Amino acid sequence: MKQINMIVMLCLLAGFNIACKQNTETNNADTVIKSEIKNDPNGLSYEVVNNDPTGLRLYTLENGLQVYLSKNTDEPKIQTYIAVRAGSNYDPSNSTGLAHYLEHMLFKGTDKIGTIDWNKEQEYIKQISDLYEAHRAETDEAKKLEIYKKIDEVSLEASNYSVANEYDKMVSGMGATGTNAHTWFEETVYKNKIPTNELNKWLSLESERFSKLVLRLFHTELEAVFEEFNRSQDNDGRKMYTAMLDGLFPNHPYGQQQTIGTAEHLKNPSLVDINNYFDKYYVPNNMAMVLVGDIDFDKTIKAVNNTFGKLKNKEVTHPTLSKEEPITAPIIKEVFGPTSESISIAYRSNGINSEDEKYVTLADMILANGEAGLMDLNLNQQQLVQRAGSSTMFLNDYGLQQLSGSPKEGQSLDEVKDLIFTQIDKLKKGEFDDWLIDAVVNDLKLSQTRQYENSTALASAYYNAFIHHQKWEDKVKFLDELKAISKADLVAFANRFYKENYVVVYKRKGEDSSIVKVENPGITPVNLNRDKSSQYLTDFQALKSETLEPKFVDYKTAIKEKDLDSGVKVSYINNESNDLFNLNIIFDMGTDNDKKLSLAVGFLEYLGTETMSAEDIKKEFYKLGINYYVVSRDDVSYIGLSGLKENLPKGLALLEDLINNPKSDPEAYTKYVDKILKGRQDGKTQKSNILWNGLVNYGQYGENSRLRNILKASELKTQDPQELVDIVKGIKDYKQRIFYYGKDIDQAIAALNKEHKLNTPLKNYPEATSYIEKETGGQVYFVDYDMVQSEMVFLAKGKSFDAKNLAATSLFNAYFGSGLSSIVFQEIRESKSLAYSAFSRYNTANKKEDSNYVLAYIGTQANKMEQAVDAMMTLMSDMPEAEKQFEAAKDAALKKIAAERITKANIFWEYESLKKLGIENDNREAMYNTIKNMEISDLRDFFNENIKGENYNIMVVGNKKDIDFKALKKLGEIKEMDVDYLFNYDNIDDKVKL
Fold first, then answer.
1. Given this model, what pLDDT does residue 222 score?
2. Is the pTM of this model over 0.85?
C-alpha cells in the first residue's frame, strides 16, 4: 500500500470528499446510491446518502453554516474541525501570509477572552494598529525602526491588560488534545479532539472565539511567524514544492502566493487588512463544523444551532483567480540546499470534481502504489534508482501529479528522470497487467476502510469535502466510478495527458542564494499575567459538565490466548469493526542479538523463490489485498501480514514459502549494499537526522551506541549473501509468539497450523549486546550545517525508571514543557518571541532497567541563541509557580485519562510496552488516583528532585558562520563533531559539505 505524507494524504482525501445538497440518483449493477433529505425531532432537515459507510448527517443551518455529523463510539471523544473557506489564495497581493497569521491570532482571544480590562486594552491595540499602518507606509529604514520601537513600547503597555493563552487553558482544561490549526490555499481549519461530555462547553467557547477578532500580543506572534518562515527556508523539500508550483502556476495564486508569505510582507503587516479579511470570510455561510465521535445526533445539532446558529451571515464573494494557459514545453527549475539531490516531475490537471481527478488518481496508483506499480516493480524493486514514487494533489481550480526520484551513487538526476519517463511510456502503451486496475481500486477501498474507522481521518475527509464544494454522494460513488474505467480508457487518457507539458525541478546540493536573513528586532518581553484571569475564563471554569468516568483495561482478560499444534502461544483480540486482520509473529530478539539480522530481512525485499520471482511475489500479495512485512528492530523482530481476512490463508502460505525458500541473488545484493551506502550518505545531509539521531545518541551513549554499532562499508561489500538468506530461513527456529487481531480466530489458527511449520524445540535467543548510558554534563557537541535557524537539544541523564513517578511526570510535562499554555512555551515564544518551537519534558525510560532523561529543545535564529539559551536554562533551574495554571493542568490530565480508551489491537501493543517497564496492569488507574490528590508543592518537589541542578550535554546544529560560540562556551566544552564519526560511517566522500 502506498505510503504518503500527511499533506498528500489530506490531498488524496480531498480528492474523494463531498457535501450533498441535491437529490440525485445513480445506478450501477449492484445498488442505487442517492442522497435524500430527512427531518430530525428538532425540526431541522439534514441530508444522508444511502450505502454511505460513514453514516454522515449533513445539516445546513439557517445562517448557512454546514454541520457534518458522524457517530463513532470507540472512545468517548469527538474530533472537531471548524473549517473556513479562506486561505492564502485570497490574501491581498500586498499582504501575502495574511490568512496564515490570522490563523495564529484566532488563539489570542476576543474582547471577552484574554483580557483583564478590555476598555483600556483596546485603546492600546488601536494605537498599535495605527503604528503598523505608519510603519508600512514609511520608506525610510531609520524611521521605520523608530516606529517599530514605538510598537514594541506600546505593546508592552497593552500586555498589562491581557492574559496569554486563555483559549488554550480552557480547551486543555476540558481535556482536549490535538489543539492546532492550519492554513492552506483554500482553507483555514481549526482543530480539537474533545471529551464527549465537554461538547456544550466547547461550543460555547468556539462560538465566542469566532464572534470577534482581537489582534492581541500581535508583534510577538508575528516574530514567531518569522521563525516559522525561517524553518521553511531550511526545508529543501518545501523549496522544491514551491518551485514546482511556481512552474505549474505562473499566474494562479497556487504558484504565486505562498501560504507563509514573503519576508517583505511579513515585515510590513497591516492589522486593518487582517481585520477586513476576518470580517469578509469568517462568516457562518463560509464555514463548516465537523463533529465525528461519540455523539447523539439530535442533541448535538440542537446544541450547535443554539450557539453557532446565532452567528450572523453575510454575502461572501471569493475573488476570481487567474486562469492558466496550457503548458506546451517542459519548464525547468533548480533548487539548491544542503540535502541530498533529487528530482521531481509534475503535470498539471483539472481540479476536484473533474474527470481528470478520476483518471489521474488511477494512473498515479498504476505507476506507484507502494507494492506492484510500474515504478515500484521496475525501478524500486530492481534497484535502478535510490527511490522513486508518485503522488497527486487536487484543489478547487487545478490538480497535479508529481513523480519524484532520488539517484543512486554516481547516477545523474537526468538519468533518474529518463527512467521515470520510461514508466510513463509503459502506462501510455498499456504495458501493465490487466488485473491491476481492479487491484488498485480494491487497495483504495482498503485504505478507505481503515481511514473511516478512525474519527480523525474521517473528519478530515468531511472538512475537505466542504472546502472543495464536493457532494458526499460523489465520494461514496468515487471508487466504483474508478472501477468502471477500462484499461483502454486509461491508456487513451495517458496519451492525452502525459506530453511535453511538465515542470521538472532539480534539487541540487549547493548554497541557496535566495535565503533571506532576518534581523533580531530586539523585542521587549511582554507580560504574561499568568496569575490573572478574564471574567470569561472565571465564568467558563464554573460551568459544569457531566462526569466522565475513566475506564481501565484488564489486560489478562482482554487478551485471549490459544496454542498452536507446535505449542506456540497465540494471543488474540477480536476485530468487531470490519473484516480486516493483522497477524504478527513476534521474536524477542533483534539487532542487539545479531546486527546482521536487519540486513538479512531487508535483503528479503529483493528476493524470490525457486518458483516465483520477487516481482511475482509482490504482484500476488497485491492481488490478494495483503501486505506483508519482515522487520528487525533493536530488541524485537516481526514477521507480519495484514489485509482482508478472507485471504489470510493464501497470504500466509505465500509468506511462509518466501521465508522458507528464499533464493539468494548476488547481483541484487550488490545493488542492495550500494543502496544502503547511498542512504547513509543521504542521511548525513538531513539536519534532523544529524541532531536527533547522531548528536542525541552521542550525547546519551558516547561512542558505544546502537547507532554506531553498524556493519562498515567494507563488511557489507564482503558479506556472503547466502549467509543472509540462511539467517532469514533460520529465524523461525527461535522462540516466538503470535498476536492476531481480526475475526474468526479459528480460521487463523487453522491457517497457522497448516502453514507455519516449526522445528521444535525452538532455540533460545543469542545474547544481546549491552549499551551503557554515560553520565551527562559539561559538553557541547556541535555540527556545522548550512541553515538559517539553529537547533539545540539539552539532555541530562536522570534517575532510573520508577513507576511511582509516572503521575508526577505526566502532570509536570503538561504544566511545564508541553502545549500552548505550558510555562516553557509562554516564556520563550509568547513573551520573548525567541523561538517558533520550544519545549521541555521529562522522558521516562522504555525499559525498567534504563534511565529517565530531562530533555529540552529550542529552534531559533542564530542571533537569538544566547537569549534563548539563557531563558531556557533559567526555567530549568527555577520553575515558575502559578497555582491557577497548575490546577488547569491537573484538570486537563485527569480529563484526558477519563476520556482515553485503549481499544482494538492497541490493547495488546500497550500491554507489550508496559511489560517492558515491569508493569502488569493498566497503570493509568494508579496515575489517575495519584494526580487527583497532587498539589503544586508535589510538582515543586518533583522539579527539585529531577530537573533542577541537572548536568546537561548540549547538542547544536547550525551555521558555523552565524553561531555565537562565546555564548555556547558558557554551557561547556565545545566539540565540533564530524558527521561520519557520529554515525561511525566510512569517510566515503570527505568533500561532503554540510
1. 87
2. yes
